[in-house]
Please model this.
Amino acid sequence: MDLGLSEEQELLKNFARDFLEKECPESVVREMEEDEKGYSPQLWKGMTDQGWCGLIIPPEQGGSGMGFLDLVILTEEFGRALVPGPFLSTQVGGSIPLLGWGTDEQKKAHLAKIASGDEIWTLAMTEPLARFDAEGVQMEAKAQGDNLVLNGTKLFIRDAHVADFMTVAVRTKKGANAEDGITLVAVDAKSKGITTTALKTIGSDKQCEVKFENVSVPMANVIGEVDKGWPILNKIVLKAASLESAYMVGLAQMDFEITVNYAKERVQFGRPIGSFQAIQHKAADMVTDVDGARFLMYRAAWSIAEDEPDAEQSVHMAKAWCNEATRRVVAHGQQIHGGIGFTKDYKVQLYFRRQKMADLMWGDVDFHRELVAQSLGV
Amino acid sequence: MDLRDTQEEAAFRKEVIEVIEKEAPRAEAGVTFEAMAAKGQSWFKKLAERGWIAPAWPKEYGGAGMSQIEQFIFNEEMAVRRAPRPAHLIIGLGMAGPTIIVHGTEEQKQRWLPGMLAGTDIWCQGYSEPEAGSDLASLRTRAVKDGDDYVLNGQKIWSTIAHVAKWMICLARTDPEAPKHKGISYFVIDMKTPGLEVRPLTNMADTHEFNEVFFDNVRVPKENIVGEENRGWYVGMTTLDFERSSVGSAIGMRQEVEQMVEYALLSQDSPVSALKQNPMLRLEMADRLIETEVGRMLSYRIASMQGRGLIPNYEASVLKVFSAELHQRIARTKTKVMGMYSQLMPGEPMAPAQGTWCHQYLRSVGYTIEAGTSEIQRNIIAQRGLGLPRD
Model:
């Protein structure tokens, strides 16, 4: 039993850390907050060149052939550097659904382009109801000949405004219970009838409202089977939650490092504030929270990668815990910085805001706690 | 990264499970040390036959010579399967024994180790004093050289099971002029020595574990110093390498939460069901389960580091603080599950679970204080772990 990383994983992690430190400094993060697309084509090309866009895509399809756990480790570094752009969206909306459930034609048509950075994808699940369970998928799609016709609105969809394709969750049948009658379909973002508007969000992450008006999609674009899409969607969301947890851990770790350094340098009453016990105890609590979050997150990611029987429960536990633990960390980060941390110009607020974004995305603490309680049988 | 056992680990775990299932009595909650000592004497003998009574001791001294990972697996299975542990022997096997193995003379080893292993000799600790708790190095019990002996005067407090112990490991000041850490010596004291008086302290859980020990011209032969005179503080620090008990307790907490859930489910059809009356309770129980998983992973992290030859530093303090505080939260959630009935103390015939949940709520108050307070642990994490400057 070993919680450490393999040599290859250490290499990936350390390389990514150094690369992103150089190529994605604070100035790029801030620039992209104001940028319409929200990502730098130069950085995107750099990431593609490293083989990261196709990290989990097999080499035969132009990818790097690595596993889910490796993607999680890379994502933690992305969180640390607050990397802007549609990397996570493309994994969650494109690589993961197609690799898991795509037909051979779908894989042939798209995986290579995802790996080369030429296709951006996103998962369009949530609607104005803003729920991450089956009940939240109400938008209707009606069969018309060889096509599905989509009507309705999706909301909080990351990077939809730059996406080439969206994996959209639609309701093709109203069954006895909500989990019955959901279909996943890959939609060309340039289809007639789609209107996308980027929203101004706390995490500056380009979540969008996407309106569908009689959008026609060929049946061949269905991922999995018609009406039977919920089990697939659930598995995608579990992986998405796992990746989001990794992102959160990375950003919390960096917030913590910035904060400890500040405590060592900031002098008041003739001594560094880090010598006061109140600050030391907050810092000690931040360590416990970051470390606990990291290892619980790894545990869940490993369980998913190994298809363990308790993988689902462990993801709910990890997301619930990471949500709260990273929230505590960034809150302490703000408090220890005092006034300077409260300004827009100082960097620590960049982490605070993105923590809340990641916390809410794919289920907040109460959503996941509830599922843990159910798994306990209470 | 692999949470599964290696082949060797799996084989060892299988062996441990077989022995526990075959020989261990079903654990029951006993609230006194005497009760714990009485139960399962034959089980402890079986452990001793394999050297498993002292898992960390080298084989040449009668222990099992287990590696860190093996100790971890052993502790995990003992906790998960609720096998009784000889708690009354822990100071001998876990503290005094390892110290004597590393620092003792051959004569001292032959004199004291066999009794520890056989379970015939109970050991206690004379460390803390009324004026020396977290600041242990400021201790004042004085040991003055007099011919071939030292004469001890002073007082110790919080001496667990001193009232039944045969031997005490005692830190006393032999050089009051030296800087405080450099004037202390490590003594082994025969509890029957004239001048030694043990007075019981009842804790707020209404049990007697701790004692005060008064030294009135207690004569201790110089052969009973372990290590060099005035090096006692550093001799005492050796035991940290051998100490595994805090890791074990983090592992057992998941079982405790499952037991709590079991109780809640069993009583859910009764009119007093907390689950029915309190819709928040199930989420609180989910929180406790999640936290035990965090504790388990923090324990695995330490074992994993040791398996790679790394030495945990602040990580042990992180685990200690987290486990102690989680124990308290679990005890509190349990009082919500049992409601008004959790007020009923051990000895009260109407008390569910023999009053152990009530007892535990009170006993767990001490967990964030003993073996290094949470405040001290946080200082250690911040200073040793993060390099923040000393106050």
